[in-house]
Amino acid sequence: MNKKHYYIKTFGCQMNVYDSERIANILQTLGYSPASTPKAADLIIFNTCHIREKAAEKVFSDLGRAYAVKQERAEEGLDTIIGVMGCVVQAEDEQISVRAPFVDFATGPLTYHRLPEILAKIGRKKGKTIIDTEFPAESKFDFLPENHSSGGCSYLAIQEGCNNFCTYCVVPYTRGVEYSRPVKDVINEAKRLIDGGTLEINLLGQNVNSYHGEDASGKEQNLAYLLRELAKIDGLKRIRYTTSYPADVDDELIACHRDLKQIMPYLHLPVQSGSDKILKAMNRRHNSADYLRVVEKLQTANPELRMSSDFIVGFPGEEDSDFQATLDIVNHVKFIQAFSFKYSRRAGTPAALMKNQVEEKIKKERLDILQDLLFSYQLKFNKESVGKIMPVLFDMKGRHAGQLIGRTPYMQNLHAELGKEYMNKIVNIKVTEATTNSLSGVMEG
Ligand code: SAH
Ligand code: SF4
Ligand code: F3S
């Protein structure tokens, strides 16, 4: 019999990218290998995101296309399993079997370790969608096969779920309450990744700095402790962690930015809005002054540190003066990268029911203004990099042969003419050109 193939399409955040890697691990242990197109796959999986309406709706159009592929393959006598995983499933499990009844299985982000049993069941339950969205008592991490490094940079999930309940956000409902992996599990996974060639680890969590995993004696430890333990591992050159919640940045964490040279001088710390009125309505536990204080402390600990952020414009009740406060905070912090979004009304969240929703036209105008400002700081920072020598970790092939793409300490993408022997290595590069989205450079020396 021919080997079976899988194709996974991933939407959403880095946590979903990590989950997709772990799903691929499971499938490999079941004898599947990767397919380069859905048409060549016996199993097509969508790992979905529910954060904004657009992301969630895209899944249904993609599913329609997958169904067409399934029918084409059926004409050739080939069976195809279609699966949906991730946050849309957790939020809209019933919708999936109504809107896409051809889906064979749907599992939420906390239950994908049960994939082997689900796949075994499909043979027996043909024609019915198998749905598994119960929040499990067990941690999926205890049941997943060991993962291995797939390159110079690796993600490592250390925390999942969120107890913050920002009023606009679906994550506490899709990923459940906060859970932290034990210290030993994280260290073992890190060592495995490093042994396999990883030089940079990006620790992931929806609220990563609320990490409180147990050590061997059962005592809860914080992210600062974990960072110090990780920094002791030989061969780990770079550490990042994302995404942090401003109110949970404590002094011990700030001290790590002073003491640990492995922590990169770039931190994603979403502020969402510069207006205290809006931050309160969002149920964020920080105001703009708190945010600025944290940034100042971090930049005192490491003067090289630069910030990135997420922003939402057009949150219910946002007036011109609130939006101006957001522009003010951007002008103050001068973020070197940022993600900004129009507020998207999500069913089941408190903000969706707020009366003072902002018109779409105003949201769009504000987003354009904000993005112009954000891009101007991003471009300015990138231009200031020209002429500097930076250690760049190359982990992707460029568009043409002989070109590699890597990341500077500040998460800028950098293109260089380099042979593949430099893949997954850190190379000193002199930056020669800069645009808003990327840098180019040449090897130094
Ligand atoms: N846990 C992280 C990020 C979670 S989602 C944090 O607290 O920052 C990533 C980003 O999506 C958020 O930071 C927010 O800016 C945006 N987002 C979340 N819900 C949204 C919504 N309903 N509409 C628009 N943007 C949203
Ligand atoms: Fe969502 Fe807020 Fe939790 Fe981030 S901190 S995941 S925005 S609820
Ligand atoms: Fe999306 Fe779920 Fe991540 S909703 S942003 S994939 S946690």
How would you portray this structure in words?
35% of the residues lie in helices and 22% in strands. It is α/β, with parallel strands linked by helices. The chain has four domains: 5-132, Methylthiotransferase, N-terminal domain (Rossmann fold); 146-264, Transcription Regulator spoIIAA (2-Layer Sandwich), CATH 3.30.750.210; 272-385, Transcription Regulator spoIIAA (2-Layer Sandwich); 389-443, Beta Barrel (OB fold (Dihydrolipoamide Acetyltransferase, E2P)), CATH 2.40.50. Strands 2-1-3-4-5-6 form a six-stranded parallel beta sheet, sandwiched between helices. Strands 15-16-17-19-18 form a five-stranded mixed β-barrel. A hairpin with a 3-residue loop joins strand 18 (426-434) and strand 19 (438-443). The longest helix has 26 residues, at 360-385.
